[in-house]
Recover the amino acids of this structure.
């Protein structure tokens, strides 16, 4: 303390402006940090306490700025709520996008010629995608908690890490499925029955990695159910000449992006005994993915032909093919960070196709009967 007071006097004296004593001391402090710390070491306890801002919350002026990314919003939520939001994977919304986008394709294709898709249905299916993806992740983590503990990437998941008990996750699952049922009940009876039929896939998919090297195929059947459901929600039932090729294309797309995703955990999967298409294809992955890409484009073309899509749609399908081809060509299956980058880029693929469907549909001429009805009303 005495040394600190002496330093203060020297710096405040008239001679201090000339500099030598004070500056020599300061230079000594910078060149010998350990000695300077010894001069006047404050009580370390206050330094460890969080600064308090207005209202008493930790952080004060040093608090991190609010982030509007999905991960940032989850981390800024109340602490007791965060494990549940992470269990739903709200901090990683790419899976929700990949579940939602096939729904948008179907809703867009089902729109009347020359019209935009039904915005209410798009919003309703978006809500359903958030809830059902959350429910699917909850089921997956309940089944896989013992496996997740053995893999570095998944060991921090809420159930595996012990942040949420098995009972709490079961109750939370019931809440998500109840809300998803409320969304489903907003649709027509045909769509309600069709939507309910997908629940068996949602429940059994996590078990497939124990049984077969093709769990990605089962995921594709599950994740692309919206390609059937979106059309029936608009038209009252499925037109199988459009819905089946679209559904098939979505399944092929899922085989592409989820095989890429599975390559991140390939070594861990071998150790713990989990199967995947990444292990099945191994070094032949690019050849397999190329075949799936061709099949995807054939299915999209067939769906477009059967619902009289215009050249704008096929132009975008060609762009989608180029994007997927670039993914496959530049993919390095031995680099997990590259696999993740390629996997997440598939949101762009899905959005691009949706834009192509909407613009292609707007380019169509309106139904003559509808146009005549409008003219009669005028």
């Amino acid at each position: 303390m005495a040394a600190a007071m002496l330093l203060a006097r020297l710096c405040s004296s008239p001679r201090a402006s000339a500099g030598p004593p004070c500056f020599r001391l300061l230079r000594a402090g910078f060149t010998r940090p350990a000695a300077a710390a010894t001069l006047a070491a404050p009580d370390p306890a206050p330094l460890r306490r969080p600064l308090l801002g207005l209202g008493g919350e930790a952080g004060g002026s040093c608090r991190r700025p609010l982030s509007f990314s999905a991960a940032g919003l989850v981390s800024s939520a109340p602490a007791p709520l965060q494990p549940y939001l992470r269990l739903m994977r709200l901090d990683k919304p790419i899976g929700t996008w990949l579940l939602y986008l096939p729904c948008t394709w179907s809703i867009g294709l089902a729109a009347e010629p020359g019209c935009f898709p039904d915005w209410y249905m798009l919003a309703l299916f978006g809500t359903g995608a958030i809830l059902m993806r959350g429910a699917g992740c909850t089921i997956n983590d309940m089944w896989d908690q013992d496996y997740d503990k053995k893999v570095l990437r998944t060991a921090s998941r809420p159930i595996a890490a012990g942040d949420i008990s098995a009972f709490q996750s079961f109750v939370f699952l019931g809440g998500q499925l109840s809300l998803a049922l409320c969304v489903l009940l907003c649709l027509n009876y045909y769509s309600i029955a069709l939507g309910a039929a997908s629940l068996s896939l949602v429940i059994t998919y996590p078990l497939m990695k124990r049984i077969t090297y093709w769990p990605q195929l089962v995921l594709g059947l599950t994740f692309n159910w919206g390609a059937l459901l979106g059309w029936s929600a608009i038209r009252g039932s499925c037109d199988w000449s459009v819905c089946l090729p679209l559904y098939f294309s979505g399944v092929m797309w899922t085989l592409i992006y989820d095989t890429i995703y599975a390559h991140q955990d390939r070594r861990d999967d071998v150790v713990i005994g989990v199967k995947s298409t990444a292990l099945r294809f191994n070094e032949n992955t690019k050849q397999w993915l190329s075949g799936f890409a061709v099949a995807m484009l054939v299915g999209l073309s067939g769906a477009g032909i059967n619902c009289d899509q215009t050249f704008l749609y096929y132009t975008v399908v060609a762009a989608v093919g180029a994007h997927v081809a670039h993914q496959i060509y530049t993919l390095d299956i031995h680099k997990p960070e590259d696999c993740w980058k390629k996997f997440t880029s598939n949101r762009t693929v899905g959005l691009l196709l949706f834009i192509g469907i909407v613009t292609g549909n707007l380019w169509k001429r309106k139904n003559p009967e509808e146009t005549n009805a409008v003219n009669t009303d005028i």
Observations:
- Residues 109 and 192 are 20 Å apart (CA to CA).
